[in-house]
Amino acid sequence: MDEMHLLLREEQTAAYTVEIWKRFRKWGGIPTGITQNVKDLLASKEVENIFENSDFIYMLNQAVGDRAILAKQLNISPHQLSYVTHSGEGEGLLFYGNVILPFVDRFPKDLELYRIMTTKLSEVKAEKEAKEA
Prior knowledge:
With 133 residues, this protein is α+β, with helices and mostly antiparallel strands. Helix content is 45%, strand content 12%. It has a 3-stranded antiparallel β-sheet, with no helix packed on it.
């Protein structure tokens, strides 16, 4: 679910999202949600149910207010928070069960997979223009 915080705004969609989150896991699914607006996500009373039913969290650079909320919600130490404070591309924290692991992922930009996965519109546009030339 992209921009997952939007599903948690309204009581009805929030309840449905939590229910689906729990059921998909029971059925062997891997529910996945992403957002850039962590404050909005964490404002929902339902987010605690989602965190409690999530085995894996991939966290990149976070804004000051978001870091404080996440530190409290996920019990992140000040040292661990440093990995999501002014971090660069591909740097952050992985949460898997009880393990919190800092990571740096320098994904090679010259691979076809990078070209397919990039979300940088400037790179997508430049490639499109190069193909048209």
